[in-house]
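Weekend entry, working from home. Most of the wet-lab plans are on hold until the incubator is repaired, so I used the time to fold the two sequences that have been sitting in the queue since the last round of cloning. Logging both here for the record. First:
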Amino acid sequence: MAMAVDVEQLTEAEARAELARLAEAISAANLAYHTLDAPELSDADFDALKRRNLAIEARFPSLKRSDSPSEQVGGAVAEGFGKVAHAVRMLSLENAFLDSDVAEFEERVRKYLGAAALAFTAEPKIDGLSLSLRYENGVLLQAATRGDGEIGENVTENARTIADIPQRLTDAPALLEVRGEVYMSHADFAALNQRQAERGGRTFANPRNAAAGSLRQLDANITAARPLRFFAYAWGALSAPLATTQIDAIARLNRLGFQTNPLTVLCSGPDEMLAQYRKIEAERALLGYDIDGVVYKVNDLGLQARLGFRSATPRWAIAHKFAAELAWTQLEAIDIQVGRTGALSPVARLTPVTVGGVVVANATLHNEDYIAGRAAKGSPIREGRDIRIGDWVQIYRAGDVIPKIADVDLTRRPDDAQPYVFPHTCPQCGSPAHREPGDAVRRCTGGLICPAQAMERLKHFVSRGAFDIEGLGAKQVEMFFHDEDLPVKSPADIFTLAARDAANGLRKLKNREGFGETSVKKLFAAIDAKRKIPLDRLIFGLGIRHVGEVASSLLARHYSTWPAFEAAITHALPGTPEWAELTSIDGVGAVLAGSLVAALQNGPERAAIDALVAELDVQPVQALGRVDSPVAGKTVVFTGTLEKMSRAEAKARAEALGAKVSGSVSAKTDLLVAGPGAGSKAKDAQKHGVKIIDEDDWLALIGQA
C-alpha cells in the first residue's frame, strides 16, 4: 500500500512546507481533543502525524519550527473553569510505533547516560483524561486537568466524586501531587450511553470522550452520577521522595490507597519491554477499558533526574502505541485553504466515515504533487494513482491529525472523473500563486492584501502561545475582520478597539447582538491586560514564517529586550556582526534568520509591527535556569569529544544553570569547553581571547565534579 512521500525523499523546501502543515494540523487537533473534548481524529492518527513531524525534524534539524508540535503539550484551558498553575509541568510523551523505535529509545538513553544496561518499567497507556491531585498533610486540596501542561482546569469538586480518588491519605509526604488518568470502563460507558439515549440526552462517541466530558461538568452533581475511575501512575511536586525507583514508587502509591495498573512490570531491556508490549496487546480486548499503547520509563529515579526533559517531553520515557486503522469512503470535493504564510493547502471533503470510533469528514491532500500521485522528485506514490473528485479513497488514520488518503480504488472510479487541476491563483484574493523551484507548496503572492493570510495571522496572534487574549478567539477575529464599523485588520487594531468603540456613536459594540455592556468591558479589560507582554510571546505572535514558540523563546532569552532584538534584526544582513550573532544562537539557522530579517526589514510589515509595539509594554525575558550559578547569563560553546557526559546532557545542564549555549565562537563567547579533538572552534576562541577549559574544569565550575 503506497503512503505519503517518504521523509527521506523530501527536499528541504518540501520538508519546510510539510512541517508548516503539520504544525497547523496538530494545533487544531490539540484544541479539539484537549479543550473541546471533541476529537476529529483517533489517537493513532494524531500520533502518526507527530511521528512524521519528528522524523522530518530529525532529518532537517535546521528547519525545526518555533511552534513545533514536538515542543507543545495538550491544549488550552476551557472557559468556565478556574485556572490552576502546575507546580511541576505535566508533559506529554514521545511516541514509538515500531520495535526499532523502542530499541533506538533504549540505546539513546544509554548513550546519554553512558550506561551499559538499564531497567525500565512497562505499563498500559490508559486512554483517558490526565488529572493531577494535590494533597497537603494527607488531605486532598486540589484537582486539576493537564490543560496545556503549565495551566490546567480546577476540577476539585468533580474529582472528589470519583470513588478511586482517596480524600485523605495516611503515611504520605506532607506535600504529594499524584498524577494519573481518569477513564470509564466499557461496561459503564455502554450503560451511560443507554441511559442518555433513553432520556434524549447526548450520547458519547467513545469512553475517553465520556470520561473527559463527565469530569469537566460545571455541575459536580452530574460528574457524581457518571461512573468514572482513576489509575495513578506518576507524581509531580513532592516534599519527600516516594521511593528510589519507578516500580517502588508505584507500589507506594498503591499502598497509599490509589488504584495502580496490575500490568505494570519491570523489564531489563528492549526484548523484555517488547515481550510485555505483546502480552498487553494480546489482552487489550479483555481488559474492559481502553488503552492505546504501553509506556516505558527508566526505573531508576536518580537516572530520570539526570536525563531530565526536553521542552515538552521527558527523555526517560516513551509511549509505544498500538497500530492504526484504515477505512474506505468517497471523496466529494477538494477545497483549497490559504494559510497565514500564503500556502495553498488542498483538503479532501469526504463522505463521513467512522474509524476507530471517530467520525472523519476531512483529509489532507498535502500538495498538488500528492494529488497527482507523484513525489517531489517525480517518483510515484500510490503506484502513480492520482486522486480525483468522486474517487473511493482509503483513509489512513495513523498518518496525520487531519487524516491522509493512503490509496485509491480505481475499480470504483466514476467514468466522468477528471484529473484535478490545481489552481495557479489564490482563491481568496486572486493573486498569482507561485511555486518556487524545489518547493512542494504553491503560495499566494498577495501578502498583506490577501484577506485569508491577514485573517490567519490575526488568529495566530491571539492564539494560546502568543497573546492569548481571553474572549478574543478565532470566531471573534473573523467577526471583527469583516466589521465595517470596528475593523481589525492588523494586531495594532486590537489595542485601539476600545478607543474606536468609544467614538462610535450608536454603533457601539455593547449595542450589538451577542454583546452586552458587561461582556464588552471584559473584552476590553482582557485586551488591556495583554499590553504588558513578554518578549518571547510578542515575537511568536508576529507570525513570522519559521519562527515558532521554541525559536521565539531562544531569541528572547538571547536578546532579552525588544530594543536589543529590534536593533539587531534591523541591521542583520549576511556578513554583518549582527547576522553572525543571530546565526550563532544554537537552534537558529540561516533559513529562520533570513525569514526574521525579511519581516523586520520589509516596509509595510515593519510599519505594522512598529504600530503594534507602540501599543505595548514589552517585558524583558531572562535566560532560563538559576541566576546565581557561576555560568548564568554567559555564552558557552562545547567542542570536541566529551568523555563524562554526552553533548546533549552537557547542553541541558548548562541551560538549566542559566547559560546560553551557542553553536559557534565569536567575540561575545564567554567560555569554550573543549574536549579531545577540538578543532577550528578552539582556534577561533584563541583568536577572540575566549577562555578555554576542559571537561573536568567545566564540571568543577558548575559544582558537579
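Second, folded right after the first finished:
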Amino acid sequence: MKQLLFYITLVICSITHAQEYVNKDSLLKLLPTIKEDSAGAEFYIVLGQQYESSETELAKYYYQKAGLISEKLNYQPGILRYIFNYTFVLNMQGRFDSGLALNLKAVAIARKLNDPVMLGKALFNAGSSYRMLAQFEKAIALYDEGRKIFASNGDSLLMARSYDIIQMLYYNLENYDKGIYYGETAVKWLRTIDDPLWLGTTLNNLGMNYFKKGNYEKAKDAWMEALAIGKKTGNVEMEGSQMLNLGELYTATGAYAVLQQYYQKALELYTKLDGAEGIAIALRGLAIYEFFNNNYIASREYAIKSLEVTDKNNLQLEKRKTLETLSYISFALHDLKKGQQYLLEANALSDSLLNDRIRKTSIETETKYETAKKDAQIQLQQVTIKQKNMLNYFLISGAAALLIISLLGYRNYTHKQHIQQQRINELETQQQLAATEAVLKGEEQERTRLAKDLHDGLGGMLSGIKYSMNTMKGNLIMTPDNAQAFERSMDMLDSSIKEMRRVAHNLMPEALVKFGLDTALKDFCNDIHQSGALQVSYQSVGMEGHEPDQTTAITIFRIVQELLNNTLKHAGAKNAIVQLNRTEKQLSVTVEDDGKGFNTTILQQKGGIGWSNIQNRVEFMKGTLDVQSAEGKGTSVHIEISL
C-alpha cells in the first residue's frame, strides 16, 4: 500500500514582530482615555499584540485602528508597525496574497524614510510573503538585500531572525542540509538572547528540516522544546503547530496509538484561532488515527470535514492530501468506485500544482477580465461608446493573457529540452574521459612492459655479449689491425648498451617509479641540460612530502617530456624553464622557452600527435591548459590541475 504523507505546519512570523507583554486588563482600562495621536497608534499596536495568539480577529481590529490613526496623521513609523503586525496575523490565517500587498507597501515607505534597519525588516517580511506564495526567486532577492543591511548594522537578534527565515527558504527549496545549518546557527544565537517567541519559532522550523532528513529524534526534541515555550508564553499558534508536528512525527514512526491526543488538541487550538489550514490538517490527522484503529466510518467523517475546510479556504495542497486519505479509506470500506474517484481527483490536483505559476497567471488575468467585464455592463446602461471601447480593451487583455500563457509553456518546454541536452553532453564527456583514461593507462602499461623487456632482456643479452668478448680478448692472438677493429666493436657495443638504457629510461624513468615526480623531472631536465642541446632550469615549490598519485605523476611527466621535445625540435631555443608548484588544492606546471615562438591559432586549425596527446592528458586530469606565444617572443605553457 502506498504510504500516506502529511504536511508539517510552520509558524510564520514577521521578522520585526516581537510581542510586548503587559497586563491586558490595565490596557483595557486605559482604552477610553486614548487619543488619536501617535501615542494612541502605538497603544493600539501593543493592545493588539495581546490578542493575536488567542483572538486573531480582535487583534486585527486593534491593528487596523492603529493603521487608520497613523494614515490620518501621516505618521510613517506607525504605518510600518501596523503593517508588520497586521500581516503577521494574515500569515497565520494563510492570507498570503493580502499580506504581500501590504508588505510591498511597507518596503516602499521604508525606502522613502531612508531608515536602513526598517528597510531591512520590511524586505524580509515581503520576502517571506513571496516564499509562502512559492515565488522563490523574488524571495531570494529580497532576503539577500535585507541580509546585507542587517550584517552592516551588527544587530545579533535581527541576524538570528534572518537566519531562521533563510532556513525556511531552503526548506521550501528542499535543500534540508543548508536549512539545518542556518537553523542551528539561529538557535545558537537566540539562546543568548531573551526572545522566547522567536526561539520557539526557530526550533519549530529547524524540526521541520530535521524531519525531512529523517532525523526524527532531533525533530522531536526541537518540537517538544517549542511546545513548552508555546505553553509558557500562552502562544496558541505555536502550541497548535507543535501538536500537528508531533502528530505527523508519530504517524511517520508508526506510533498510531498516541495520534488522537495531539490532533484533538490541535483541532481545539486552531478552532480558537480560526486557522483554517491547522483545522484541515488536524481533522485529517484524526481520520488517520481512526483508520489505523479500523474505525473506517469515523475516519471517513473526519476526512470529509477536512475536505470541506480545504474547499472553503482554497487550501489546494491540503486538499490533495485529504483526497488521497479519502481514497484509502474508501478502498478499506470496499467502495472501489469512490476510492478511484478520490484518487483521480488527487492526481489531477497534483498535476495542477506542478504548473502553479502558469495557472496563477491565468487565474489573475481571468479575474481582471471578469471584473472589467462587470464594470462594462454597468457602463453599458449609460454610454454605448464607452462600452465598445472597454470591450476592445478586454479582448486585447485576453489575447495578451493567452500569449503570456503560451510563452510560459514554451519556455518550460525549452528549459526541459535544455536540461536533457546538458545531461547528454555530460554523459558524452564522461564517455570520452573514460576512453582517454583507458588509452593513457594502456599506453603507460605498454611503455612499462617495453622498458622492462629492453632493460632486463636486451640489456642483459648485450651485457653478456660484452662480457664474453672481453673474455675472448685475453685468449686471442690478433694483428694490430684486428685488435683495433675489435676495440671499435667494443666501443660500439658500449654505445648500444647506453642507447638501449636511454630508451628504456625514457619509456619508464626509474626515478619516477622509485622517487616520485619531482625527482624524475629534475633528472630529466638535468639530462637535457648536460647534453648541451638546451639549457634547462628546473624549479619546484611545495613538493616535499606531497607527491601526487602515480597516475597523475606519470601523466604530468609525459606532458613535460612532450613539451621539451617540441622545444628541442621546433623552437630553436637556447634556454628553457620548467616549474612545478603545489598548493593545498592545486598543482600547476609551467614550461617556458626563449625560442622563435608561433601563432597560437594554428593549434585550433591542426595539431600533431604530440600536441593532441598533451590536450588529452590535461582533459583526463580535468585540468586547464593555457598557451601564450607570439612570433619572436618565445612560448609559455601553463597547466593547472585541481587536487
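Plan for Monday: verify the second prediction. The chain has five domains: 1-154, 155-234, 235-354, 362-427, 516-642.
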